Amino acid sequence: MRFRQHAAITVVFALVLAACSGGADEQESAPAAGPPVPDGTFETFDGEQLSLVELSGEPLVVNFWASWCPPCIAEMPDFERVHADRGDEVRFVGLNTQDSREQAEALIAQTGVTYLLGLDPEGALFADFQVISMPSTYFVDADGAIVHRHAGLLTEQQLRDLIDEHLVDA
Predict the structure, then answer these.
(1) Within 10 Å of residue 122's Cβ, how many Cβ atoms?
(2) Model pTM?
(3) How far lies 169's CA from each of 49, 86, 87, in Å?
(4) Angle at 19 between CA 16 and CA 24, to 5 degrees
(5) Residue 60 — very low, low, confident or very high, per pLDDT cuts 50/70/90?
(6) How far apart are CA 61 and CA 39, in angstroms?
(7) 126 within some domain
(8) Where residue 147 sits, what CATH number does that domain have?
(9) What is the domain range of residue 136?
(10) How do residues 27-55 score in pLDDT, each as one tens digit?
(11) Strand 60-65 versus strand 49-51 pairing type
(12) Does some domain include residue 25?
């Protein structure tokens, strides 16, 4: 019985709090930006150290991939086609996670991708982004806020649509 009373009081309190959170001078506001892009660094395949925060100022598509991930391999040519077509509007960053450099380089040669690629061998950025499945793609606005996350394979058309929806026409 005591549990029911406690639960009922909690529900009533939550409803009162929700009702009081508005107000007579309530005003419309812009939608809240997503969380900021993590500030971890990565090494490019050219040996340069970069952070995604350094790349703010332009929209980013950040894709986590690995050589052991069949859907990652399948989507890389589609990412390359969209990059070739839209790379002047949106910067593409592919982060290889938990692979050896040799495995990653072999896949890069196989797929022919040319957008910015980096190494996350210990999975630090993978953890910072709280990735839960592979592949995972994050859409980051020019202000450095993550505005959309997609878990799983993306086709060329899906990628184009998400860029238009969240980064270019947003």
Answers:
(1) 10
(2) 0.79
(3) 31, 13, 15
(4) 135
(5) very high
(6) 15
(7) yes
(8) 3.40.30.10
(9) 34-168
(10) 333 445 689 999 889 999 999 999 999 99
(11) unpaired
(12) no
Domain-located, residue 70: yes
Q: HSE, CB side, 13 Å, CA atoms: give it for residue 162.
A: 23
To the nearest 10 degrees (0 to 180), the angle between helices 101-111 and 70-86 is 60
The residue type at 14? A
Q: Are the beta carbons of 38 and 129 closer than 8 angstroms?
A: yes
Taking the C-alpha atoms of residue 95 and residue 74, their distance in angstroms, rounded to an integer, is 16
From CA 104, how far away is CA 96, in angstroms rounded?
A: 7
Ranges of H-type helices in 22-141: 70-86, 101-111, 124-128
Residue 9 has pLDDT above 50, yes or no: no
Residue-wise pLDDT tens digits, 119-148:
998 899 999 999 999 999 999 999 999 999
